[in-house]
Amino acid sequence: MNILLIDDDPMVHAVIRKIMAMNGFELVSAQNVQEGIDKLKTHDISLVISDVMMTGIDGLSFLSILKKDGQFQSVPVIIITSNLDPVLSSQALKQGAAGFLTKPVSEQDLVNLVKTFASLKGESTGITITDDFLNRKIQKITSTLTHDVLSNNTKTSTINFVNCLNELFDFSSIAFFKAVEDDKYEITVEGGMLNFPEEFRQFSVNDTPNTTRVFQNKTPVFSNDVLRHPDAILNSWAQYFSLVSEVIVPFYRYERKFFSQSNSSMIKTPDIVGLFWGFRNSVISSKECELLIKIFNQANPVLFDLNRHILTGEF
Predict the structure, then answer these.
(1) Is residue 257 part of a domain?
(2) Which domain holds residue 89?
């Protein structure tokens, strides 16, 4: 994963280069925005870190330009500055910055951010999205996750993710269930217009054929046949609210100590510590299934790391 740093201070380059090298990332250096643009054109850049005050084009102007460029608008940008004015950070985030750090940059904050983007990039399924509106919504999920990492937001990060999923895929009901016993799971976050049936606000692994499939095969389940759901309660609920599709995606445990520098992502274990379960009143396409899998794979290590102590009791 190549990271582009645009800053006119050689000391900043030296410090950040050392931090990145210690964590297995390559740093591409530029002394000003124009040089940074040239490096974007010639290198495979996954993340940009840019200062604000520089000779020539300033960092915020660069950010504005980049977000209007069809080729590079999806490249995340972290703004760094010694200016402590909160208006500046607000302006940067409104213009599309994925993160905002003040100098001297906290090594831990920077590493957490970069590893977040490494995780978000590391499990791509190779899907190319050409729809600008869809792209903007997907970028919103990325930006929201990044903000939650920056603020160490364990309280509402999963809520934010569920809300973004609901906005992107228009679920009638979607919830995150966490493990409470070996084979029991209960709702901790719920989104959409409909609440889950009372009987399924806590469930056992083998309560429905589809949950059984998820835990046996350790793979997501997608169905466009909810109106004939084999579980009588869910069948009746689906009939009443005209629900036609179902999505169940497992949420895995990730081992931080096995962070791999070769692919810049944490390693997941076979342990399912939770799952996302959703229903819609519109059918789900194969492309939507692929996109959902991509988003879940990207978000899983980030959300797990944020909520590790909640999900596993680890600190």
Answers:
(1) yes
(2) 2-105
